[in-house]
Specification:
The chain is built from six helices and no strands. By secondary structure, the chain is mainly α. It has one domain. The longest helix is centred in the C-terminal third of the chain and has 28 residues. The radius of gyration is 18 Å and the shape is globular. The N terminus is likely disordered.
Length: 155
């Protein structure tokens, strides 16, 4: 067991990109989720209106989602950056990204206009904007899956 950890430490020391790339991705994903949560935490009523605008959530769940999701985003981002329960944080982030992709994709397919509410509570309606959101979230999910593979190897 000790020989394996010595080998992986020596490998990491001889290949700095093996440390820098995963750390950079952790930092970017974590900061993105912290940033995305900030305005939602301080304006849950506006975020609730955005969730209602998606037209897919039951009315009884909208307030709970508007209050809960931003805190999950915040804590998952912080934990991913600090390395506290980083696999659990990454699992939450990847699950949220997958759900965002499904919700955005569903609304794109049905031609529904909506405000994302991702990084601001402003107007981001339109098919072009929604397609960009979908692509961005797919890229972020790809980065999260890359990290998941790295975390599984080191766990």
């Amino acid at each position: 067991m000790k020989a394996e950890s010595d080998t992986s430490a020596a490998s990491a020391a001889s290949n700095p990109s093996g440390i820098i790339l995963p750390w950079s991705i952790r930092l970017c994903l974590g900061m993105a989720f912290i940033w995305a949560s900030w305005h939602k935490i301080f304006a849950p009523d506006q975020f609730a209106l955005i969730l209602y605008g998606y037209g897919i959530f039951p009315a009884d769940s909208i307030n709970l989602l508007a209050i809960g999701v931003p805190f999950v985003e915040l804590f998952a981002g912080i934990c991913l950056i600090l390395g506290i329960y980083k696999r659990s944080a990454l699992m939450l982030i990847n699950a949220m990204l997958l759900s965002f992709i499904l919700v955005i994709g569903f609304n794109l397919i049905r031609g529904h206009q909506f405000d994302c509410g991702c990084f601001s509570l402003g107007d981001t309606k339109g098919a072009g904007s929604a397609l960009w959101l979908l692509i961005r979230d797919l890229i972020m999910l790809g980065a999260g899956l890359f990290l998941w593979g790295r975390f599984r190897k080191t766990a």
